[in-house]
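Sequence in, structure out. Go.
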Amino acid sequence: MQPDAKKVHPHTSDSSYTITGRISGVDSGWVYLINRQIENDSPDSAQIKNGLFGFTGKLTAPSFCLLGIVNRGQKEFRLGFFLENGQINITGNKDSLDEALVSGSATQDEYRQFIASRKPLDEEGEKLGRLYESIHAKNDKRLSDSIEKVYGAYDGKVKEFVKQYAKSHPSSIIAAMQLYENFSYNPDAVELEKLYNGLDTSVMKSFFGNKIKDVLDVAKKTAIGQNAPDFVMNDTGGKPLSLNSFKGKYVLLDFWASWCGPCRRENPALVKTYREYHQRGFDILSVSLDDNKEKWLAAVSEDHLNWSHVSDLKGWQNSAAKLYGIQAIPMNFLVDKQGRIIAKGLRGEDLGKKISEIIK
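Output:
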């Protein structure tokens, strides 16, 4: 694998890495390696002979990579690890590849230690995830609202854990990675900038440091009090519709998709608020991150979303989603009559409460 150095890190190096590995239960076939820090990176491949495989290449900085094997005819990338120049050894089992041991990388050693220290939180999150799914399966709104609040409190604990780690490890790539992964959804620009500025300069210039900077730049432009960035996109009938055309109304700019379970579960709250306040100056503009028009339109109909909808059918490459820095959905922005953002990330009953405060 020969990554483009400009896409990974600004520094250069003449050293290289050599990976030797063994995956128990796989005596032949192919193993694949992909660098997640290179956009559209093509997987490198190595043949497995007598259970052994190897890769060689060059990196200019530690990079987060995925290792995978073919299972039932499909490539499954199940091991995520930090690769860096040097002698790297990977030992694992095909049935638990995500738990394979990676040695020879100091960055991976730190990453493994971080994951171990966060294990109690991860276990709590897994339990909440199972509870979340079981409650929603019962379609009990009272319990659903309760678990949403519990999940919010849990998210706060995770963020605080990551925040303290970053403060005590300012020169760590792992700290930057975790800040990016945990503070990119509905970021507080002031808080994120403070955390970003607390990192060492070398980490700021790293791959994950640059990703945080990108999120921060957009967060400042879409912060509460800022004018909502305008865009034009085709509606369900193929006609262009702009956000600015809603000026004079309170409008909720809602990002969602037909394939997004949490989005679909959130839709009844949107329907309720729309029905109650539409005649009093409230509207919704939904931006779909679908890439299939039929599925998009079917979901609009099934969920009774009787307001304006737009999409460029480019999935996560949706131009409006990029403009607003959307990292996860559902996500929304409440815009006032003058086109200013006055709230964001409103979920469940919080949306109705906010609208009731501004529309008397």
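Check: The first strand starts at residue 17 and ends at 24. The chain has twelve helices and 15 strands.
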